[in-house]
Every structure is written in C-alpha cells, then in structure tokens.
Amino acid sequence: MAPPTLPHSSLIPSPPPNSVKELTDAASLRSVPPQYATRNPDNTIGIEPIIQEEIPTVDFSLLTEGTPEQRSQVVHHLGKACEEWGFFMVVNHGIPERLREAMLDSMKEFFDQMEEEKGEYAGKHVTDPIRYGTSFNLTVEDVRYWRDYLKVFVHPVFYSPAKPPSFREISKEYTACTRAMGMELLRGIWESLGLEENDMTKALDLHSCFHLLGGNIYPPCPQPELATGLPAHSDYGLLTILLQNGVNGLQVKHSGNWVRVEPLPNSFLVNIGDHMEIVSNGRYKSVLHRAEVNSQSTRMSITSAVAPSLDTIVEPASQLVSDEHPVMFRGMRFGEFLELQQANRLKEKSILDFIRLHAEW
Ligand SMILES: O=C(O)CCC(=O)C(=O)O
Ligand SMILES: [Fe+2]
User: Fold this and answer.
1) 27 in a domain, yes or no?
2) Domain range for residue 151?
3) What separation in Å is there between the alpha carbon of 277 and the centre of ligand 2?
4) Counting atoms of ligand 1 from 1, which one is nearest the CA of 303?
5) ipTM
6) Is the CB of 231 under 6 A from ligand 1?
7) 154 Cβ closer than 6 Å to some ligand 1 atom
C-alpha cells in the first residue's frame, strides 16, 4: 500500500503516541502519521460499494409485555433479523435515556483524563479485568487504528476503574440493564430456533455469563479517507449491544455490501457474535462490521458483549445438528476462544474459521 504524501516535518521520527487522543490533543494535525494510513484511497480495486438500507427493528416491549400473539410475532421477526442480517435495532427497551447519557459522559470523562492516569490500566493481557489501550492489539499489528478503548469485565465479577468517580455506580446500573435486555433477547432468539430456554441457560452457563463493557473513542481525523476506526471483524460473544454518542460511523456487511448504520434516536444496535453462530450450528451468523472515522466530530461507542461463562465449552446445540445440517464447529472453551481472538490480528472471522469443520451451507 503506497504511503500518503506527508509534509516534510512529519518525517522526523518521534515516539508513537500512547493513544489517538494524545496524538490529536497535542497539536492540530493536518495529516495522519504513516502508521495510521491503513487505506489507500487511490486503490479502488476490490472496494465494495457502501449503500443505505433499512435495518430491521425489534420492539422490545412486545417481547416482554406483549400478548402471546405479539410475542410470537416479535420472536419470528427477531429470528428473521438474525438469519438475514445478524444485526438489528432495538426500540422501546425501557432503559432510561438519562442512564445512556450518563454512561457516555462517564466514559468520555475516563478518556479525558491524563495519559498517566489512564496508563494505570494499560493492560497487557486479555484476562486483565480493566484494560485501556489504543488501536486493537499493538503487539501483533503493524498498523494502527484510529481508536482508543477501555474494556472492563462487569460480570460474573464486577470491576470498575476508580476514576472518574461516577464510573462505578453508572456502569453498574448500565450493565445490569443491558444484561437483562441481552438475556431477554437471547430467550427470544433461542425460542426462534425452536429450542427450550432452560437448555440455553444450562448449555452456556448464563448465570455466570461473561459480560464485557467496552468504550471506544474515535477522535476527529484530518484524513478520514486514509484511516480506519476498526477494520472488518465479527464480535466473539453471543450478542453485542451497542450505544453511540449520536455520531455515525458503523457499517455492517449485508448481502455482500457495506451498509451505513444510522440508528433511530433512543435505540440500541445489537449484533450477533461468533458464539451465537457456533451454538446455532451456523443458522445465525455473526455479522462483519467496521467503524469509519470523520474529520468533524469525536465519535464514541459503548459496547456490552454478553457471552457464555469463561469455562463453558461451547458447541453447536445438538437439536440443530442433523444429516442435512452436519455439525459445523468443534467445541472450544469460551475463555480459550477469547484469548485467541484478542491475541491475533483483527481480521474478519479468522478465529471462528479456525474451529469451523465444514464450509458454510
Ligand atoms: O464503534 C462502533 O460502532 C463499533 C465498535 C466495535 O465493533 C467493537 O468494539 O467491537
Ligand atoms: Fe465489534
């Protein structure tokens, strides 16, 4: 990939910044440093079109408070959204707007701290319960992505950074609400596969489910056409519930095209993760998504990944395996999958492909 043309002063070697925030706060940048130039806008070969399309919407209130007919309709709709998109918007979820705003504000306050303060959590390993960093995994990447992150384990054991002071209480409430929503969605999704709810809780040990709260910040970028917020990847969990700060940038892959996501006000975005693809024996596939950056506004997203317990060996549900649909994946302990995903380059669905036994049907 040809590097972009840079002004002479940018060629003086300097230590790489600790974070994109540090890089962009320090000076008014006119161009992106070479290691962040992950795209070549002149190379149009292989670039897929980006389109606008309506994303499925799920009315959560009908799942929890609807009549039996309404519930079965919404379960059917949910199943279709999982099968055709692996991605949907959730409306009427009942999580107060003040809590969503407070979570975004508190996450912003975390990123606004001095680098030394955040550096306390500069985790080395995926099993560190609080991990602050930049890009995806600097030890295996030779490029940098235009995002900083915070990842916090919030279940089965709840952790929180000590600062900002509001973080603990807000993230506790926020994660309890999103986990409850995630469990309800999982019940509906499981039902849409014709499976018993109890089987799911047992098979995936959901009482001890692994829940990770993530924060992403994508500061304004002087050359957004050269940089990438996050490259195409799937998430490892069962479901990811995403909230953004009103600045768009997420794209999902649908029927071979990239679709720009413009969420409805007050909605959450939900995507299917690799472990749903595994347990459903490939019926509901994890969706590729990526984040682009822009030159105007700081984008932030908060992710809640709900996953099996770390010690569960996840394999396809036996009820979904038949002569016609042979077993698609070998079983793997969820914790091991997580370590593999986090220790390698972020590249599409490469970790899922590692345990795949057959080509997709
Ligand atoms: O910021 C976004 O919209 C996407 C974030 C994401 O895909 C992730 O954290 O895995
Ligand atoms: Fe993701």
Assistant:
1) no
2) 52-354
3) 15
4) 9
5) 0.99
6) no
7) no
Average pLDDT over residues 156-185: 97
Nearest-atom index, ligand 1, CA of 147:
1
Q: Which of 166, 194, 213, 162 has the alpha carbon at shortest distance from 319?
A: 194
For residues 297 and 261, the answer to whether their CB atoms sit within 8 Å is: no
Q: Which of 113, 162, 80, 95 is nearest to 304 (CA)?
A: 95
Q: Would residue 89 count as lying in a domain?
A: yes
Q: Total structural domains in the chain?
A: 1
What is the model's pLDDT at position 10?
44
195 inside domain: yes
Pocket test for ligand 1, best of 301, 306, 347 (most atoms within 8 A of CB): 301
Residues 215 and 300: beta-carbon distance below 8 Å: yes
pLDDT digits (tens, 9 = 90+) for 110-151: 999 999 999 999 977 888 999 999 998 777 778 899 999 999
* Lookup result for tokens 């009427």: 92
Q: Tell me the pLDDT tens digit for each residue of 201-240.
A: 888 899 999 999 999 999 999 999 999 999 999 999 999 9
* Ligand 1 center–CA 329 separation, angstroms: 25
Note the pTM of the prediction, 2 decimals. Answer: 0.92
pLDDT tens digit string along 60-119? 999 999 999 999 999 999 999 999 999 999 999 999 999 999 999 999 999 999 999 999
The answer to whether the CB of 216 is under 6 A from ligand 1 is yes
Ligand 1 pocket residue status of 301, Cβ below 6 Å: yes
The CATH number that applies at residue 204 is: 2.60.120.330
pLDDT, averaged across the chain: 90
Ligand 1 atom nearest the C-alpha of 250 is 3
Nearest Cα residue to 211 out of 158, 167, 168, 161: 158
- Cα gap 155→159, rounded to integer Å: 8
